[in-house]
Structures are given as structure tokens and as C-alpha cells.
Amino acid sequence: MTTYSVGYFIGSLSRRSINRVLSRALIRLAPAELEFREIPIADLPLYNHDLDEDYPPQARALKDAIAASDAIMFVTPEYNRSIPGALKNAIDWASRPWGQNSFARKPTAVIGASPGAIGTAVAQQSLRAVLAFCNAPQMTSPEAYIQMRPGLIGESGEVTDPSTEAFLRDWVSEFHVFITRVHAVLPQD
Ligand code: FNR
Questions:
Q1: How far does residue 165's CA lie from ligand 1's centre (Å)?
Q2: CA distance 69 to 63
Q3: Which residue, judged by its Cα, is nearest atom 12 of ligand 1?
Q4: Residue 188 pLDDT class (50, 70, 90 cuts)
Q5: pLDDT tens, position by position, 65-118
Q6: How far is the CA of 23 from the centre of ligand 1 (A)?
Q7: CA of 82, closest atom in ligand 1
Q8: pLDDT digits (tens, 9 = 90+) for 110-126
Q9: What is the 79 CA–ligand 1 centroid distance (Å)?
Q10: How far apart (Å, rounded) are the C-alpha atoms in residues 70 and 4?
Q11: What is the value of pTM for the model shown?
């Protein structure tokens, strides 16, 4: 059995984040071949290209964590119809210095939860445009726009609605298949 290390970003810094809850559900439902490790973004300074010659330790840790990951999962809220600034800041750090873009050829998947009816759809399109520029292969199907209502997913990630549970299990299984395919055709070094 080939196992893959999946680094994941939570776009929210909130301790009560519904997207963090969603990430716990995905980890519970994932196939055994996927091992998950969060890539923290809260302590990153704001990106400044004056620092490209001498990255701060938090940014070096970020790039090391992506390099150590076989794939990247983004679990993000939508802020004002785009992605949160903290997540964009992390992506900007990871994409630089020029020529050392950490996302190149890395298989990625995007998912998010919102109380609203369109479940982060606009933010996900915004994130997909950024990942395309960063040369990161993206799982394009299935898409996943999760409308979070109270009680849908418990604090530890237990999903109470069977159809949502089946949907999320399928989504993360498809991500496993996608990772396998990308690794089969694209050299990662
Ligand atoms: C939001 N929220 C929101 N929701 C949405 O569906 N579309 C949007 O554009 C926005 N915009 C927005 C901006 C800002 C600054 C905040 C704080 C919130 C609501 C958002 O979906 C809700 O707060 C979620 O709980 C955020 O996800 P986390 O932080 O709980 O994971």
C-alpha cells in the first residue's frame, strides 16, 4: 500500500472555525492511504519580497512542510466572495522566491464550508485561479460546496447526515485517486 502525506491548509484562523470542523470530518472519512498534517498559517508575517533573500523562519517552515507533502488540501471559508487574506498571504510566501514555487506539480484539492447557500463557491473559484498560476494540478471534479448548518458535523468531525457523510467520503476518496494519477505522470522533484 502506497501512502501519501497530505498537507492541509485551513483558511480560517478562528478557534471556532467550521472549516476546521470540516477538515476533521474529511480526515475521519479518508482512505487509510492518506495521512494528514496541518500546515499552519496563523504566525506568518505579511509577505514582503524584500525578504526573499532571507525568508523568516515561519515562512521557511511553511515551504518545508509543503515540500514534505505529497499533496495539498485547502479547506477554506469565503470572505467577501474571495479567499481570506491569511490564506492568500500563505500562498504568496509559498510561491516565492521566484523560481522556487512550492506548489509546482503538487496535486491539490479545494473544499470549503459556509453557512450560506453557495457554500464558498466564489472563494473556491478565486483559489483555483491562484493555484492555476502556481502550476498546481487541481482535482476539478467532484466539486464540494458545503453549506454548514448547526449539528451537521460534530466538533470531532462526526457527520450526522448520512448523505453528507457519503458525499465527503467519496470526495476524499476521489482525491486519493487524483493524487495517485498525478504522481504517476508528473515527477515531483
Ligand atoms: C464572511 N462570511 C461569508 N460567507 C459567505 O458565504 N460568503 C462571503 O463572502 C462571506 N464573507 C465574509 C467575510 C468576513 C470578513 C467574515 C468574517 C465572514 C461568513 C462566513 O462564511 C462564516 O463566518 C464562516 O463561519 C467562516 O468560516 P470559519 O471561519 O468558521 O471556518
A1: 23
A2: 10
A3: 79
A4: confident
A5: 999 999 999 999 999 999 999 999 999 999 999 999 999 999 999 999 999 999
A6: 16
A7: 9
A8: 999 999 999 999 999 99
A9: 5
A10: 6
A11: 0.98
3-state DSSP of the chain: CCCEEEEEEECCCCCCCHHHHHHHHHHHHCCCCEEEEECCCCCCCCCCHHHCCCCCHHHHHHHHHHHCCCEEEEECCCECCECCHHHHHHHHHHHCCCCCCCCCCCCEEEEEEECCCCCCHHHHHHHHHHHHHCCCCECCCCCCEEECCCCCECCCCCECCHHHHHHHHHHHHHHHHHHHHHHHHCCCC
Nearest atom, ligand 1, residue 81 CA:
9
N residues, the chain:
189
* Chain position carrying cell 495521512: 35
Pocket of ligand 1 (CB under 6 A): 12, 14, 17-19, 77-81, 114-116
> Ligand 1 centre and the CA of 100: distance in Å?
32
